[in-house]
């Protein structure tokens, strides 16, 4: 009898606890989180104005303004409970502490360009920690260094550098709206990389909020953590507040050109030759090849053109000599070449006509994304035979809108050891491929995603293998992923070994040291494993 009473009592207790827990989850989680944020910050930097929940009329616009892929831009498809657009470093610290104590996941967003939307989607309840208001940039010309906040865009950084000096630059990506937070932590790949390596090769310090809400920098930022966030992706280790970077020298005159060859005009032959020479040119040269569809509007005329984009750190005369010697098949003419300052090359790379003002570099478009896209990447270590290229063209022609970027390696990329930073794809690559498909009709998603799989399968014999390398900044969920709330280590090793090759082991150890309980987790995060 007594046992029965105890049992009933226990059952009631269990029932009560679970009911009240459910109530806590449903109604109080946001209030607790907000109250905690309030408690954790000081009144001179009130956090309330930085917080946006579904009750705010600006919630949807705040969500979509830093989304770039229409596939993931509907907040209704996610379990987002709040957006904290930090206006002060203490807001970042509070968000980490309070999300952790309330068992809410966070997604960190700087520029919002993540190809798979991982900075703003999740299928478990989460908060977006949005860094876009933390965007100051301080340049020290005499030391050739700068501090760049995570929420600054590349366009803002390039503008600030060029205002301070005509002969300094920073090696990073082409698109001006990329956020320094995500872009640099994922590697940061751009047209100065054959001369100076990628962004992470030019990062010397950072300010990072760790899982306990502490700011680590300088002497308190371990070498191992600084190593990991240079190419390992920021989101697995903490929140990057800012980067200290070295600026690099560029001449006052830089030369660019853009010429193209269609298949009918011998594109395959020129591209074949490009594979043999592009990684061996002087490292001042960056010659990108972009196979793309042409004349899609006229079915009888549809073809592929390979567009060659070049940047040379020097005058046109010298550039012409180098091309005539190494790739005369291009048929380059002096009038194809434009000499300009480094800052003005940004207009060229974003496809504006020569002479366009660089004021677009400061634009922060807030419209919802207009297009859906899917991207994948590969590394190529030996030339693709012409038959292989013909195979690729056949599949490309099935798309409505698709292009590839073949980005030459060599130069500094061959000289920097694969373990110098967490970014591992160095020596031994001829070039890197990005595949990119774009569409505007939601109904075309399955067809495009399917075609991307088809082209990726067809490329397998020609690209790196065991593992097949992939570039973290070109995030691709097809190469392995975990559910939002759980990290399966075996699965993590699959995508991890593709992104990080031999650096994965050390990345997992650094993760175990700085975030042993795996608070900073998402679909492609690095799991905390001490030994393997
Ligand atoms: C149009 C376009 C052009 C591109 N061109 C290039 C290029 O030339 N070279 C190149 O290398 N890449 C390029 N990319 C890829 C780009 O570098 C990556 O998408 C990069 O992750 C974007 O950074 P973000 O801050 O804008 O993105 P976000 O979506 O904000 O973040 C990307 C990832 O980083 C994490 N993260 C963001 N901020 C922080 C932070 N402060 N602390 C910790 N983790 C953080 C996010 O959680 C997410 O996982 C391009 C992308 C697009 C859409
Ligand atoms: C916030 O602080 C108040 C007063 O110190 C305290 O009663 C409350 O429990 C705290 N709330 C949270 C969520 O930290
Ligand atoms: C959201 O609404 C709250 C309460 O009205 C307000 O204090 C806060 O400033 C709003 N947040 C934003 C980002 O507008
Ligand atoms: C290719 O070059 C031709 C002639 O120079 C030009 O008309 C065309 O627009 C170019 N196409 C691309 C995709 O750049
Ligand atoms: C960049 O181009 C613009 C427009 O042609 C020109 O006015 C400006 O002087 C150029 N800037 C530099 C630094 O060369
Ligand atoms: C990189 O590898 C080399 C050779 O294996 C080793 O000597 C060096 O300590 C490693 N560097 C780092 C940063 O791990
Ligand atoms: C997409 O498919 C839906 C459902 O089949 C259909 O109603 C809609 O008209 C289609 N949209 C376009 C642009 O074809």
Quick structural summary:
This protein is an alpha+beta fold. Helix content is 32%, strand content 20%.
Describe this structure in words.
By secondary structure, the protein is α+β, with helices and mostly antiparallel strands. The protein has three domains: 2-130, 2-Layer Sandwich (Uridine Diphospho-n-acetylenolpyruvylglucosamine Reductase, domain 2); 137-249, Uridine Diphospho-n-acetylenolpyruvylglucosamine Reductase, domain 3; 254-339 and 368-462, Vanillyl-alcohol Oxidase, Chain A, domain 3. Helix content is 32%, strand content 20%. It is built from 15 helices and 18 strands. The protein has a seven-stranded antiparallel beta sheet with strand order 15-12-14-13-17-18-16. The chain has a five-stranded antiparallel beta sheet with strand order 5-6-10-8-9. Strands 1-2-4-3 form a four-stranded mixed beta sheet. Strand 8 (203-209) and strand 9 form a beta hairpin. The radius of gyration is 25 Å and the shape is globular. Residues 12-20 have low confidence and may be disordered. The site of one 2-acetamido-2-deoxy-beta-D-glucopyranose has 4 residues, from strand 14. One 2-acetamido-2-deoxy-beta-D-glucopyranose is lined by residues 32, 35-36, 39.
Main attributes of the structure:
single chain; alpha+beta; Uridine Diphospho-n-acetylenolpyruvylglucosamine Reductase, domain 2; Uridine Diphospho-n-acetylenolpyruvylglucosamine Reductase, domain 3; Vanillyl-alcohol Oxidase, Chain A, domain 3; seven-stranded antiparallel beta sheet; 15 helices; binds flavin-adenine dinucleotide; binds 2-acetamido-2-deoxy-beta-D-glucopyranose; flavoprotein; FAD-bd_PCMH; FAD; Berberine bridge enzyme-like 4
């Amino acid at each position: 009898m007594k046992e029965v009473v105890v049992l009933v009592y226990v059952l009631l207790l269990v029932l009560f606890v679970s009911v009240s827990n459910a109530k806590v989850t449903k109604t109080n989680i946001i209030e607790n989180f907000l109250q905690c944020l309030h408690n954790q910050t000081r009144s001179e930097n009130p956090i309330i104005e930085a917080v946006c929940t579904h009750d705010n009329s600006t919630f949807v616009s705040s969500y979509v303004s830093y989304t770039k892929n229409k596939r993931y831009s509907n907040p209704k498809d996610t379990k987002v409970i709040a957006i904290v657009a930090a206006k002060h470093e203490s807001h970042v610290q509070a968000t980490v502490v309070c999300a952790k104590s309330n068992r809410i996941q966070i997604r960190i967003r700087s520029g919002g360009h993540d190809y798979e939307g991982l900075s703003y989607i999740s299928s478990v309840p989460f908060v977006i920690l949005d860094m876009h208001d933390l965007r100051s940039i301080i340049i020290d010309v005499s030391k050739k260094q700068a501090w760049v906040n995570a929420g600054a865009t590349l366009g803002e950084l390039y503008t600030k550098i060029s205002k301070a000096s005509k002969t300094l630059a920073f090696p990073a990506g082409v698109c001006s709206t990329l956020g320094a937070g995500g872009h640099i932590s994922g590697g940061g790949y751009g047209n100065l990389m054959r001369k100076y390596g990628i962004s992470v090769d030019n990062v010397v310090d950072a300010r990072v909020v760790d899982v306990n809400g502490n700011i680590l920098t300088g002497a308190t930022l371990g070498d191992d953590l600084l190593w990991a966030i240079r190419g390992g992706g920021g989101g697995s280790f903490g929140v990057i507040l800012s980067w200290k970077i070295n600026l690099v020298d560029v001449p006052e005159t830089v030369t660019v050109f853009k010429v193209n060859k269609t298949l009918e005009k011998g594109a395959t032959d020129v591209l074949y030759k490009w594979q043999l020479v592009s990684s061996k040119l002087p490292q001042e040269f960056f010659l990108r090849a972009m196979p793309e569809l042409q004349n899609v509007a006229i079915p009888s005329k549809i073809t592929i053109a390979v567009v060659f984009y070049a940047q040379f750190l020097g005058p046109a005369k010298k550039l012409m000599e180098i091309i005539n010697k190494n790739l005369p098949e291009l048929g380059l003419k002096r009038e194809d070449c434009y000499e300009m300052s480094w800052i003005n090359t940004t207009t060229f790379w974003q496809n504006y006509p020569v002479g366009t003002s660089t004021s677009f570099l400061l634009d922060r478009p807030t419209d919802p994304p207009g297009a859906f896209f899917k991207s994948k990447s590969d590394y190529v270590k030996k030339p693709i035979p012409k038959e292989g290229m013909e195979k690729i063209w056949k599949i490309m022609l099935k798309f409505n809108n698709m292009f590839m970027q073949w980005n030459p390696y060599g130069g500094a990329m061959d000289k920097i050891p694969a373990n110098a930073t967490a970014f591992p794809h160095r020596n031994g690559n001829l070039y890197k491929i990005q595949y990119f498909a774009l569409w505007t009709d939601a109904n075309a998603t399955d067809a495009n995603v399917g075609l991307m799989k088809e082209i990726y399968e067809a490329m397998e014999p020609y690209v790196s293998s065991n593992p097949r390398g992939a570039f973290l900044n070109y995030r691709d969920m097809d190469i392995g992923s975990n559910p939002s709330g759980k990290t399966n280590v075996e699965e993590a090793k699959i995508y991890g070994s593709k992104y990080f090759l031999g650096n994965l082991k050390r990345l997992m150890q650094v993760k175990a040291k700085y975030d042993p309980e795996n608070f900073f987790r998402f679909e492609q995060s690095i799991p905390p494993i001490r030994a393997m």
